[in-house]
Design goal:
single chain, 133 residues, alpha+beta, 4 helices, elongated
């Protein structure tokens, strides 16, 4: 007869370091640093020149842009309203169910303007301004 392994709390492959509180604190601090870097690091607030919705933006390459929307920006954005209504003549297509959060053409133009003005770097800098790498 084989014996089942005792059940543990949390993910079985992730040690909790309960017997080493100093290491647990270092792992927790590193995880928080990762979260800050990937969710907010290098983000710049950009205001849409059409509807004044403010979003956080970061470019990691000329073809990749990260946009973080908040509830106020989603309410203000006329382009999102038009996408929800089925699209418009400005190039805002219909909002597809389950699709990632789109960006309206007016906000995209505002982001492109911010890149052209040097407010947002066109790609990730060689050295991370957040000191992550």
């Amino acid at each position: 007869m084989t014996r089942a392994a005792p059940r543990t709390r949390g993910w079985a492959k992730a040690p909790d370091f309960s017997n080493d509180p100093e290491r647990a604190a270092r792992v927790h601090a590193a995880t928080e640093r990762d979260r800050e870097h990937y969710l907010r690091g290098g983000m710049r607030e950009i205001e849409c020149r059409a509807c004044h919705a403010c979003v956080l933006v970061k470019k990691t390459s000329p073809s990749h842009t990260t946009v973080q929307w908040n509830a106020d920006a989603r309410r203000r954005c006329h382009g999102l309203d038009q996408m929800r209504a089925g699209g418009d003549d400005d190039g805002n297509g219909p909002l597809l169910p389950g699709a990632m959060m789109p960006t309206c053409v007016r906000l995209s133009a505002s982001i492109d303007h911010a890149v052209a003005e040097g407010i947002i770097p066109a790609e990730s800098p060689e050295h991370d301004p957040d000191g992550y790498w």
